Predict the 3D structure of the following.
Amino acid sequence: MKNKIKLGFLSAFLIAGGLGSVANAAMLTRELQIGMSGADVGTLQTFLAIDPAVYPQALVTNYFGSMTKSAVMRFQSKNGISTVGRVGPQTLGVINSQMGNGNTSTGADRSAAIISNVSVTVTRNTATIGWNTSENVYGKVYYSASMPTITETQNQTDVAISGNVSQTDNTLRNSQFETLVNLNPNTMYYYTIYTKDPSGNVQMKLPQSFVTQP
């Protein structure tokens, strides 16, 4: 089963708790539900992944998709909470209580890199996108003249993003630049910065846009 979401639907949530923001490692501070993004979603996924029976995929993407919803439902069932699949007040309290009791570590790296200092320089036909990360990662830029989609696939341990892709030299770095070429002048493009660390933790910066020069 696949869950495909238009990125435009995410923008309001990104303003409230955007990717790259730092959630308290021992506490969730807002209610969470499908379609939301943020470092606190990654914190939730990290916590759920402690129990393979709850979250067997153990995918930390900072995006609340269908797999995360199913994991929340299993957690709710296990803890005697109505299986609504969203982190409401009751579920939030139980999760924070268990986090406070130290149930937060699997011994594995479940922390995705934080993306910062994003810069974009455009000409008529090119755009150079730069960014920094809190650790060495592999980087890609997905881009398109239309609003992209993100696809979460049940049997994968990653996410797929529509559009063209421009990849760095496949070297682990904490400072990266990527130049997009053969662009049309005076055109708006959407782009997504995608990073993955050596442990497989994914971080995305989305959605962003730029306009090429006339």
In short: The chain has two domains: 2-100, 115-211. Residues 66-78 form the longest helix (13 residues). Residues 115-211 form a domain with the Immunoglobulin-like fold (CATH 2.60.40.10).
